[in-house]
Design goal:
With about 200 residues, this protein is mainly α. About 80% of the residues lie in helices and about 0% in strands.
Length: about 200
């Protein structure tokens, strides 16, 4: 890959991740909010931003990284995502336990709550599946199906959750980040499907 193209890719990713966080920091809705609430909100913003990195790492779309480093970073980002989700939910619990209980029981009147809970459980299930992959000796095909299925639930739930909320995240940067996440995921799925078709075609010759 040409150096100029690599710089452009890294610059776009950096802006896509940083701009929503910076815009949220400048939100007037943060005025008079408790520090715990602010921390919980930013943990949610960080969680959404991390979703862009995961498919890019798996697909090899970030230049200059070896396959080994990409896998290690994928695990690191996945662990960070789990921590960010826990901080997000824990912070909201501290500031308003009844709202969190209603969300967890899917009886909240706000639609974004249900999508957030679905994405949360999918994140936890993905982490559990990754932890148990070796002890359970999961076959590669079964692992891929489970991992990809949960990842799609996470992306769909997190994006719906973010877009439905009228909160600290700025609308344009939030929407652009969500569109970019969907585009990268769709490209990854298309690339994987293309490789699968190529492999089956070669094996039938």
């Amino acid at each position: 890959m040409r150096p100029a193209r690599a710089v452009v890719i890294w610059a776009v990713v950096a802006l896509a991740v940083a701009v929503p966080v910076i815009a949220a920091a400048a939100s007037p809705l943060l005025a008079w909010r408790q520090p715990v609430y602010i921390a919980a909100g930013f943990a949610g913003v960080v969680s959404l931003s991390l979703l862009l990195l995961q498919p890019m790492l798996i697909g090899g779309y970030l230049p200059g990284l070896s396959p080994y480093r990409r896998r290690r970073l994928h695990l690191l980002v996945g662990g960070t995502l789990v921590v960010a989700v826990i901080v997000h939910v824990a912070g909201l619990w501290i500031t308003s336990p009844p709202d969190v209980v209603d969300a967890l029981l899917f009886r909240s009147p706000t639609p974004f709550s249900a999508w957030g809970v679905i994405a949360m459980w999918a994140v936890f299930a993905t982490a559990l599946l990754a932890t148990l992959r070796r002890p359970l000796r999961l076959r590669p095909r079964l692992w891929r199906i489970g991992h990809v299925s949960l990842a799609l639930v996470i992306v769909a739930g997190a994006i719906a959750h973010a877009l439905l909320i009228e909160g600290t995240m700025e609308t344009i940067s939030k929407t652009a980040l969500c569109i970019l996440i969907v585009a990268v995921v769709m490209k990854l799925l298309a690339d994987r499907r293309g490789r699968g078709l190529t492999s089956r075609s070669a094996s039938n010759r």
